[in-house]
Amino acid sequence: MLDIRETPQYQEYSIFRHDYFHKLLAWKDKRVIKVITGVRRCGKSMVMTELCKELSKSIPYTNITFLNFEMLENEELQE
């Protein structure tokens, strides 16, 4: 998986949300649904990308599902 933190765009424009990331990580083994909400472009997808990367260190990447509903290929899932 691409380490997004290594891209110039990430390093120049992104703020890593340590607090949110660590709060989600602390709940990773709890059998509850985790929901991330916020205004557009506040970093929700970045936090999830980082979380997926961290989770892939301990579980198979094929067991991780990440859906971006703004991508056209996921359009049928919105209905």
Quick structural overview:
It is built from three helices and no strands.
SSE topology:
Blueprint: H1 8-13, H2 18-26, H3 44-55
Helix pairs in contact: 2-3
Question: Can you walk me through this structure?
Answer:
- This protein has 79 residues and is an all-alpha fold.
- The protein has helices at 8-13, 18-26, 44-55.
- Helix 2 (18-26) crosses helix 3.
- It is built from three helices and no strands.
- It is globular.
Helical content band: 25-40%
Instruction: Count every helix, treating DSSP H or I runs of 4 or more residues as helices.
Output: 3
Q: Quick one: overall form?
A: globular
Counting DSSP E segments of at least 2 residues, the number of strands comes to 0
Biggest sheet architecture: none
Main traits of this protein?
mainly alpha, 3 helices
